[in-house]
Recover the amino acids of this structure.
């Protein structure tokens, strides 16, 4: 055992060309920690409300709409920020959503929604894309805060309790099926096709 340990210790001390394998391993480990810390910090910074409303397209359009909703001001004082509804909380889902959001950066660079008129012209397309995404992931972002199992249907109004109990029983519906326009104005649906 001692010779085995000595052989590996010598391997770690032996220089590659200029540096020992141990130094390169330790250096790689430290560089990995620095990279991971920087990457994670960037992920968290891009999840802040200040980052989201950093461009005037979001600040003057959808952010203003959010301020008039129950997700902005309510009896419990809990406020949902942009990332609460548009970015999943789980790490793998979050990374996938961030990669998908890189397309939105191109839209910002080329000014596809930089005026209120351009935004309104694309509102239906943007809403349908978001509704489709939420339908596909079973309204994951909604369920980060709202969980069927935690709902007390007896304190909900009759219509909501009936809808929620039916959705629970059927299992084929998700939050976004009934709650479109909960945080932003509904687009003009006259040009809508499909089940939206």
């Amino acid at each position: 055992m001692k010779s085995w340990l000595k052989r590996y210790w010598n391997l770690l001390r032996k220089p590659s060309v200029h540096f020992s394998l141990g130094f390169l391993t330790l250096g790689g480990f430290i560089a990995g920690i620095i990279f991971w810390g920087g990457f994670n910090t960037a992920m968290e910074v891009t999840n802040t409300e200040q980052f989201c409303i950093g461009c005037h397209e979001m600040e003057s359009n959808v952010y203003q709409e959010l301020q008039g909703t129950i997700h902005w001001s309510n009896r419990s004082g809990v406020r949902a920020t942009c990332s609460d509804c548009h970015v999943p909380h789980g790490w793998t889902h979050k990374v996938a959503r961030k990669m998908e959001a890189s397309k939105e950066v191109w839209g910002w660079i080329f000014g596809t929604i930089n005026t209120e008129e351009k935004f309104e012209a694309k509102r239906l397309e943007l809403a349908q894309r978001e509704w489709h995404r939420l339908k596909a992931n079973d309204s994951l972002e909604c369920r980060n805060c709202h969980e069927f199992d935690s709902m007390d249907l007896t304190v909900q109004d009759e219509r909501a309790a009936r809808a929620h109990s039916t959705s629970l029983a059927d299992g084929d519906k998700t939050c976004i099926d009934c709650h479109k326009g909960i945080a932003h104005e509904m687009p003009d649906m006259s040009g809508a096709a499909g089940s939206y």
User: Anything to note?
Assistant: The chain has two domains: 1-45, 56-189. Residues 1-45 form one domain. The two ends are 69 Å apart (CA to CA).
